[in-house]
Amino acid sequence: MDFNNKLVLITGASSGIGAATAKEFAKHNARVLLLARRIEELRKVAEEIQREGGYAKYYPVNIADYRSVEKTANKIKKEVGIPDIIFNNGGSGIWKYIDEETSEDISKLMTLYFGAFFVTRVFLPDILKRNTGHIVNMSSHVPVLPFPGANGYIVAHAAMRGFTDALRSDLYNTDINVTLLSCAKFRSTFWANNPGSEERYPKVALILGVPPVEVVARIIVKSTYKKKKVVTIPSLLKLADLINFICPPLMRWLLYHTGFTRKDLIVKNQKKPITP
Ligand SMILES: NC(=O)c1ccc[n+]([C@@H]2O[C@H](COP(=O)([O-])OP(=O)(O)OC[C@H]3O[C@@H](n4cnc5c(N)ncnc54)[C@H](OP(=O)(O)O)[C@@H]3O)[C@@H](O)[C@H]2O)c1
Predict the structure, then answer these.
(1) Separation of 115 CA from ligand 1 center, angstroms?
(2) CATH number at residue 98
(3) Does the CB atom of residue 12 touch ligand 1 within 6 A?
(4) What is the pLDDT of residues 133-151, one digit of tens each?
(5) Of 111, 220, 125, whose CA–CA distance to 159 is shortest?
(6) 2 is a domain residue
(7) What are phi and psi of 234, to 5 degrees?
(8) Position 276 in a domain
(9) Would the CB of 26 count as within 6 Å of ligand 1?
(10) For the CA of 142, the nearest atom of ligand 1
């Protein structure tokens, strides 16, 4: 596997799967551009790649703000050029029931879609002119197998899947590839960055195992290289899809009864200190 100096732009590259994927791409001879808000974290990831002999540059940006994206994209175009591969990955994960959610939570969650839209749109005219490129979109499998207590997160990932399908249609008859990653839980900084979410993950899904980011990064890079259209991670998830296809009530029962319930929510809220 040799990416032959290809330029790979990765959002959400300051931690978790974004950082791990950047390291994996760099190992296979890609030049990586790291994007996120936390400049110190980005610098550390870039330095680690450079120490190993790889090429990495970092650009602090808020992908939810199109002005910030446009400014950064202009800088990238001037300094390094147009990316060959864009990995839209940056986002967060506040898991709440709809009645717990605030408008700020929803804006934060929709960063995944808005970020992907702004970043893709800003580079796409040049990518189209060149008629070669690859857009890889991160998504969770949760819209396929939804469970209670993560309303906005499920919606944000459904938006990302819709965006990916629509983009694929827009790029029909071009040489630009589109990949959808559909992931179950993996071990990353995500859970510490989004406190209160992990306890809501349905226990039944733990049967699939929880791979570390390095393993998932290897799958993502290999699938990008092979230009796969849809990648389900881990592949065992397809079995869950099959069960859901054959007997949806059974899958619903498993997800609802091994997940976080409203009863758990009441108990949790009762434990909260009473403020005067
Ligand atoms: N971990 C899992 O089990 C899992 C499963 C399925 C899908 N996913 C998805 O994978 C993606 C990456 O998650 P992760 O596990 O790597 O967790 P993470 O370590 O929390 O990574 C999130 C990344 O997104 C960046 N980000 C968030 N908001 C941003 C903004 N407004 N502008 C720029 N960058 C922003 C963060 O960087 P800054 O804070 O520095 O900006 C960080 O680099 C997420 O979209 C998540 O929903 C994760």
Answers:
(1) 11
(2) 3.40.50.720
(3) yes
(4) 999 999 999 999 999 999 9
(5) 111
(6) no
(7) -75, 165
(8) no
(9) no
(10) 6
